[in-house]
Amino acid sequence: AQSVAQPEDQVNVAEGNPLTVKCTYSVSGNPYLFWYVQYPNRGLQFLLKYITGDNLVKGSYGFEAEFNKSQTSFHLKKPSALVSDSALYFCAVRDQAGTALIFGKGTTLSVSS
Amino acid sequence: DVKVTQSSRYLVKRTGEKVFLECVQDMDHENMFWYRQDPGLGLRLIYFSYDVKMKEKGDIPEGYSVSREKKERFSLILESASTNQTSMYLCASTRGGAGKGYTFGSGTRLTVV
Questions:
Q1: For B26, left (φ over 0), alpha (ψ -120 to 50), or beta?
Q2: pLDDT tens-digit profile of B28-80?
Q3: Considering only alpha carbons, which residue of chain B is nearest residue A44?
Q4: Which of A72, A73, A103, B113 could bond to B43 as cystine, CB 3.0-4.6 Å?
């Protein structure tokens, strides 16, 4: 069965510092991996995805994620955090059979000025 | 841009009522999904549909049913609302293909009293 783990409920960083939000997954075969962001009282917005190819994926708002097959991880990163990045972040996975996305429990990112 | 519209932003219903949550997408997507979002639990899949009149149970279908009579509309039905169904409900859609991300609606926050 597919699963996603986001081991941190909350990540706190200071503005201007690099940020990492962690995600590990379990899936049969090759994974399709996604990151979404949710601002208060809003739906989820797509940030980036890994399907195949380069392990470093670039997405919206300066975010990027690194796919690591041996560690079954897909951590979200940004070189310099902004206060406006404060939100709830979800990692999601799907296998090649491609039915529904399975989401992690979410990580709240708090960026302080 | 694809739009996924959920008809109500906030709903308050009484225990035992039959509740309809409506979702409409405007980009001819084959697949539609209903998730509920609860703090600390992330997004959990209730039902999904990959074609008109087709439906599949997700991880937590108990107490819910769905209807997809037209391609653009996917309705979630709470047959007899209970207080433990108080939650944020998110609808999403996607074109077929495992590598496709979802487009989410803004969500319906349902309170059952």
A1: alpha
A2: 999 999 999 998 899 999 999 999 999 999 999 999 999 999 999 999 999 99
A3: B104
A4: A103
